């Protein structure tokens, strides 16, 4: 399937651990790796929300990114070697997405701040 064929854009709200959130916002991590349980598509919007996994709380910061590329592990059914076979056996629905920020401020992705922490 051609990546430019998708017309409908979906906004995906995703919890993102603080360290990964900071790396994406600062531009060091221009990709997101997830299970493809949502049917991610080219041009979809990822609303990444900073999340503390131990306290199980959203920390109030979020940032929007557009998906610029989608790579699914299942798109490589004929890849040879034990690493590919193991990866497909463990995580058959893994997706890697190239992303870029919708808004930039001071050379990095613009972060939106809400009041305080939110329990989940």
Q: What is the topological layout?
A:
Blueprint: E1 11-17, H1 18-25, E2 31-35, E3 45-52, E4 57-72, H2 82-90, E5 94-101, E6 104-105, E7 108-109, E8 112-113, E9 118-119
Parallel strand pairs: 1-3
Antiparallel strand pairs: 2-5, 3-4, 4-5, 4-8, 4-9, 6-7
List keywords for this structure.
120 residues; mainly beta; Archaeosine Trna-guanine Transglycosylase, Chain: A, domain 4; 7-stranded mixed sheet; two-stranded antiparallel sheet; 2 helices; 43% strand
Please explain how this structure is put together.
The chain is 14% helix and 43% strand. It contains 2 helices and 9 strands, in the order E-H-E-E-E-H-E-E-E-E-E. Strand 6 and strand 7 form a beta hairpin. The model has no long low-confidence stretch (mean pLDDT 87).
